[in-house]
Here is the input.
Amino acid sequence: MKGALILVVLLAGVVGLQAVHERGGGRPAAREESLLYVRSPEAAARLALSYRSLLADLYWIRAVQYYGGTRLSTDPDRQYALLYPLLDLTTSLEPRFNVAYYYGSTFLAEAPPGGPGRPDLAIALLQKGLRAQPGRWEFAQWIGFVHYWWRQDYEQAAAWFGRAAQFPNAPIWMAPLAATTLAEGGRRDSSRLLWQQVADTAEDEGFRNEARRRLLQLDAMDQIDRLQQIVNGYRQQRGVLPADWDELRRAGSLQGTPVDPTGVPYRLQAEGVTLGPGSRLFPLPAERARVR
Amino acid sequence: MRVIGHVAVNVFKESVRDRVLYNLVAFAALLIGASYLIGQLTAGQDVKIIKDLGLAAIATFGLLIAVFIGIGLVWNEVERRSIYSLLSKPIRRYEFILGKYAGLALTLLVNVAIMTAAFYAVLAYLATQFPGSGAVDPGLLRAVALIVLELLLVTAIALFFSTFSSPFLSAALTFGLWVIGHFNADLRNFEAVVQSPAAARLARGLYYVLPNFAAFDIKTQAVQALPVPGSYLVATALYGVVYIALLLAGAVMVFARRDFK
Here is the structure.
């Protein structure tokens, strides 16, 4: 009984001191660099012994955390320097880790500040996947995708869609997609077709959600164009920009405050109509100037 | 045979008394905790990661039991001097060794069976969270079967060393062989990295003689539902059984020659 009392008192002491420590702000702040102790995929594979898959999972979790943490960081100089090495290690340890190729290439291709803006590395990762699994048409499709969406290289995109269409198990819509891309690459309709196919056919729920978000972005771009026309018309009539949406509403040009497809109000600025702060559709694709 | 059975049952009871089965609580806590945390940490792949983790945990917990109990199986009897009273009874030395091995094998089988059941229970729960993910895949049992064989081989190695060396040395040698056994492919291709033909021949010889633990590892294939030919499973199982027989024969011979006077 006495012993138990001592244990309880000591435990209370530990908890109390930890609370004091926390109130004091904890450990003095220090700049913590992200480090990757093992960079060589060959070395990692050997060190893993019979735990290669588990180690691949750990590197994958670390890649996701690293990407998310860097993306959410408020540091204006944030870099994604370890993203590709982490994905390279993951896919070297487990060459059939398909989600790591798909998500990883999306992370790599995403333009700053949402990502490192490295479609070249995204393509390199997908080509590695294609070498590991030469029968998987989806890798060729995703390479075409990266060319289309992030590089705006529609010829290359069409070539890769065409290559994907030649796989024996490729879906029947792949060949028309290649032709449409070559003929109408950069048009919003063809972009919409592309994302709609992903939304309808992707195996992974995350990808289907991402495709739906991209479709909403395209809808938002259409809406922004229409709103911009209204704003321009108002300026031509009155010689000044409307101060806010209310002014356009009073003028009878709008029925209320316009909101994007996720329900966030658009912002009216001197430079033009943009997404409102906090919209999950931000940033809109960089090719806005090209995609028509 | 009856004597071997008696010794085996005693080893099993002793391991239960030593609270070896407590590792099952740790295993269950690890899997249940991980199945909740993984979803918060990663993008998709929850089921795959839990499968990888579950199989790796079964292999690791089993390995620790096989090594740390296996190395003391004979040594402890000698150290406690209970070997004198044991051998004065109508029990032959080979029966003692085989009984000890069978007892630890039984402990491992019970452990792995319960861990596998817990593993499938967690997967069944995940199947309700991720319908259509194929979480409850009976194909994983192929990997579990080879893990069991690997553990039985590790037990035989630990028991073999236990017949003539101290627990510390036995543990070091058993772990050493287990690690080397995962680098077998490198030994086979040693001639590609060394100039000396003698060194290459030695490495090739070691490749054939040392236990090839890498062969028992089909966890990745099982998780990815890739085909593993039945002939491969049969050949690997046969390899494991013959290697275990070799080690047990060696252990019996060494123990038979030991002088306990």
About this structure: Chain B touches chain A through 24 residues (CB under 8 Å). Chain B has one domain: 2-182+217-257.
